Amino acid sequence: MTAPQEKATAPEDKTTAPQESTEAEAPTLLREPADGIPDVIDTPEALAAMVETFAAGHGPIAADAERASGFRYGQRTYLAQFKRAGAGIALVDADALSDLSSLNPAFGDAEWVFHAASQDLPGMYELGLEPASVFDTELAARLLGWPKVGLAAVVERELGFALAKEHSAQDWSTRPLPHEWLVYAALDVEVLLELRDGLHAHLEEAGKLAWALEEFEAVRTAPPPEPRVDPWRRTSGSHQIRDTRGLAIVRSLWEARDADARRRDIAPGRVLRDAAIVAAAQAKPTSYEALVSIREWQSRGTKRRARFWYPAIEAALALPDAELPAKRGPRGDGPPQPRMWKEKRPEAAARLARARELMAALVEEHDVPAENLLQPDALRRTCWEYRGGGEAWIREFLAGRSARAWQVDLVAARLAEAFADAAVAASED
């Protein structure tokens, strides 16, 4: 998005709102919020003034967050954006103000409107913010069966406006933030409230509003993810390493890189590339000179710090065999890969085949992606673990896997029928 050349007509001022753009009618490019770009809030005094302004506003809160993924370590929020009727837009420097909990009383029990809330909520919680309820425009679009659910696509379809998205992957830890970036950030909340109203009406008309409200609450109350076991195994290209000594090098370099990246607050991939880690694990260099002779270690930045990394390789090479990592990571508690089911548990394979047919029919019937009708992992586990008990067992099992009530109501009875059909078919073979 380039710097604004003119003010766009405010979404609230439109006399008509096109529901979907066509080739004959190109969407209107939003260049700047109707009321311009406010000053960034970066002092306690400015935050206190925002508290008063937003407390005097009314209705839902449009919210968004910008991170520095790929530039900084972790997923911390660096800029938080808000909009409320009667209060306007606020851009808050979350690097300068790491505690925004004073906004909670001002927001009260108002609904917060996000696009892809699961991405932004963790950062909001870290800032001390506690949304009372959530409306997720991306999730709403998914439940409506829309093929494109990115913010720009949903805004264009529903409101007839175009949003430029070229600043989405910027380093938002940059200070001061360029004006055109602030324009981009402000526009992300400029239209959210109107977008929410349109999608709410569509959900109600489609009979999916109750489903959506359950989904929104599940996103709002979702616990943080469990820490990964052996996160170093996710190093890109590490599947090429077949021996345990090489895996020890991957682990040692990954752990050294992670500690250095955390200390320097730099994204790990910028500290040392995955390709360099894997190349070292393949070559197993026994000296610094051998390390820097590897092609992936000959770029200026990587070679310059090779002496820093080599002790991690030495440590891995010196490990006794008993301390080397296993070729495969610890297995989760889930069922094996479905391709193995016919051999290990053929009755479960038959249930899965019928269940997949059922889910395909439900997708067609309700125009909702299969993963939103029921998490694929929950479906697989149900098919694998079932030993009888019919609908009652399936309901209890799915509830224990965090399936929402609407999902259980939709699939439990029909899954029980599908499982019964699979059993009858197996007995006739």
Notes on the protein architecture:
The chain is built from 20 helices and seven strands. The chain is of the alpha/beta class. It is flat and about 65 Å long.
Which helices and strands, and how do they pair?
Layout lengths: L27 E2 L14 H13 L1 E10 L9 E9 L2 E6 L9 H5 L3 E4 L2 H10 L6 E4 H7 L7 H9 L1 E2 L16 H12 L1 H15 L2 H12 L23 H21 L3 H4 L2 H10 L4 H5 L7 H5 L1 H13 L22 H4 L1 H21 L3 H4 L2 H10 L4 H11 L4 H24 L1
Parallel strand pairs: 1-7, 2-5, 5-6
Antiparallel strand pairs: 2-3, 3-4
Helix pairs in contact: 4-7, 5-7, 9-11, 9-14, 16-18, 16-20, 19-20
Supply the key terms.
429 residues, alpha/beta, Nucleotidyltransferase, domain 5, DNA polymerase, domain 1, five-stranded mixed β-sheet, two-stranded parallel ribbon
The spatial strand order of the largest sheet comes to 4-3-2-5-6
Main pleated-sheet profile: 5 strands, mixed
User: Count the helices. How many?
Assistant: 20
What fraction strand? Answer: 5-15%
What is the helix content? 40-55%
> Mean pLDDT, nearest integer?
93
Contiguous low-pLDDT stretches (5 residues minimum) are 1-22
Structural class: alpha/beta
CATH superfamily of the largest domain: Ribonuclease H-like superfamily/Ribonuclease H
Q: How many domain modules?
A: 3
Write the H/E string, N to C.
EHEEEHEHEHHEHHHHHHHHHHHHHHH
CATH topology title of the largest domain: Nucleotidyltransferase, domain 5
Task: Using the CA coordinates, give the radius of gyration.
Answer: 26 Å
The N- and C-terminal alpha carbons lie at a distance of 63 Å
CATH architecture of the largest domain: 2-Layer Sandwich
- The tally of beta strands, per DSSP, is 7
Which descriptor suits the 3D outline?
flat
CATH level 1 name of the largest domain: Alpha Beta
